[in-house]
Amino acid sequence: MNTNLKISNVTKIYPGCVANDNVSLEFNSGKIYALLGENGAGKSTLVKILSGVIIPDEGKIYLNENNLKLNSPLDAKKNDIGMVFQHFNLFETLSVFENLIIDSDEQRESLREKIDTIMKKYNFSIDLNIPVLNLSAGQKQKVEIIRCLIRSPKVLIMDEPTSVLTEQETSELFLSLKKFSEEGILIIYITHKLKEVMQLCDEVAVMRRGKLVSVSEIKNENVESLANKMVGQNLKTIKKKKAKTSSDQLIKITNLNFTSEDPFETNLIDINFSVNRGECLGIAGISGNGQSELFRVLSGEIISEKNSIEFNNNYIGDLNPQERREYLMAFSPEDRLEQAAIPQMKIFENVALNNFKSSNFFNNGLINENKIKEHSKKIISDFNVNTDNIELKSQFLSGGNLQKLIIGRELITSPDLLICFNPTWGLDVGAINYIHETLIKINEQNKSIILISTDTDELLKLSDKISVIHKGKLSKIMNAEEVTSEKLGILMGGAD
Amino acid sequence: MIKIVKRDQPSRAIFFFTPVLAIFLTLVAGGLIFFILGFKPFEALKFFFIVPIADKYGFSELLLKATPLCLIAIGLSFCFKSNNWNIGAEGQLTFGAIVSGGVALLFYEQEGFYILPIVILAGAIGGMLYASIPAILKTYFNTNEILVSLMLVYVSKLILDYLVVGPWSNPEGFNFPETRQFSESAKLPLLFEGLRIHAGIFLALAAVVISWFVFYKTYLGFQMKVSGFSLKTAKYAGYKGKKMIILVFLISGACAGLAGVGEITGPIGQLHREISPDYGFTAIIVAFLGRLHPVGIIFASLVVAITYLGAETAQIFMQIPKYTGQVFQGMILFFLLASDYLLFFKIKFIGLKK
To answer: Which of A139, A197, A442, A479 is in Cβ range 3.0-4.6 Å of A34 for a Cys bridge?
Structure first.
């Protein structure tokens, strides 16, 4: 049973931008296809057209020579096109089983059998009776996949599925996808991660600014050639210069413990480390092993014992983030949209979230708007944020530009230490490069960084020293040159 | 064919248009209800919304009712803007009235310019004290402020009941459940001879101006805005969350307490059981109808105040129970919530095409 999906001359125009410009593509089952492109290249629009969320202005979709009319996601489901979105569409408080049957009109019992068969076949082990909120990101994704599989789809579209997964979960996902493909399901895999494309896919279609740039077989490509096609220019490869070894200690964490009242959080156990000036300490780990808690303890969102954190010869464990900023620390949290910035607020208002006293954003309890705006303009030009309107609501910035704004906001006070958590999560290659260059520059100015990241490549590229966090405990701190990604992988898995 | 499309960005115009639409729909639905009840809809609506404010007296009554609504709603907007759900303004109003009434009774048969400011201050403090209960329970014991503030409403009403029946009841009052009349010095001055509108309206206007200033010009206002959008961000920015929660509750309680003072030292002149026709609850509708914006709240309080007056005239001229007023208030909130759908979606009329 062969499946053939054809996209023919699809065009979708939004006011002010052509999201898909006359795109034609053909897919056949038995292969895994990558749809590669930077954020905003038009790949999401294309898959939303395939899944009926968006109706194209022009063009047709054919499945096995039948012209499909996809006016709603329901039409896509009826035509055996399944889709797993980047953000999960699950009801957190309902059980896994309830989530699975919610859009089906089959009998509960026959569905349960069907689900059991699917889970057995693909080695998925998820308790059907617990609420979805208790699942890890990888398990949630499996629930989404099962929900598609129930309908025995001919086409399965995965939209940036690994952005929330750990390395191990990613490799599990890849195994499943390969199995699906062998069984005749046509798989379209949307991503901007080049390595994944090389690892998983058979053919790759690259999009840039709404246009299809190339379609080629993976065996004829390598990471560099794909990156160049995706970005459209030859990328400079970033190399970090070996830092001057300094013995001037900036921050020292001693016997730091954190016990959470929330059962879904990770306790931190006996954390000890120190960072010297001009150094970047990378903290690796599979997500959910205490990184978020560690970040919050370091930033002061969680207060700890006064003596547990020594910064620049001051004990600051009991200070809140604003007070810590005055000691020249800066923080870039993982969640750009819900924590580091407020999308509904204007750019300059978001800049004012970093209330560093000598910035004079607020005088005697009053807002000093001119000062804030002045600073915002400087950040926008110094950090290449792609807009010149500081009155723009930040929801209209792309992820990369928002991250530049946040990093810029944190760095404008010239802090001695920047603590960042997954700073390039979900960004495209261009923005990632920019952020990496910025971080390297900070080190070159003899300032320090604590980089908590789940991206091993990023850590190996930027760090001078690396440690791994596993179940709330830090491994011993290693020199970055001596560490390989295999070694990190083993430590992340919890082995010594 | 009609199609519903998601808006990319809620427009500013629609933000202020939906309250107007809600009022219009309320009128239509109200007319329909009158029609079903056997009245001529237009005439009934005229009795409800136009007749009550057609003369000077009616207009003064309108402002009289709008004053506490506006004052409380302004206070509530401090809470609502910063993600704190104070539902108990009615209780804070009652407790403010109790404290200020008690102070006013202390000065029974005394005159002096200093009495009124003390009475007013006592009311504000009473409201603040009462609002501090849910605030402190929320910040230090993680209780839900919605439940606590709501339940405290009934507690305060029972305290008032006890006082006016028991210890504070008028010795010469033939056991009526009411206190003595306050002395003239403890009463808010009337603005015009023969009209009931009193100086309390200036308190409301001052609250409007101050709140506008705080919301849009101060660090506190900025922190409230950030906390309203995301508590996580507020924490990350290092705002002192507990301090702010208590502060907004205190402001809100003070406003409600002042509204209570306005009632008992204004039109009523004593304490009795029924000092407020649920102004504290209705003000929640006013706050949202006014979009938590000081100027919006002025208009919203006037609109909602009409429903109080209209209900009274309708009862007199059409023998409709005065609870119709509450029906109208409910409908306004209902239609407001419904038309808020338009904030995020727009309706597109598209021709049939092949």
So the answer is: A197
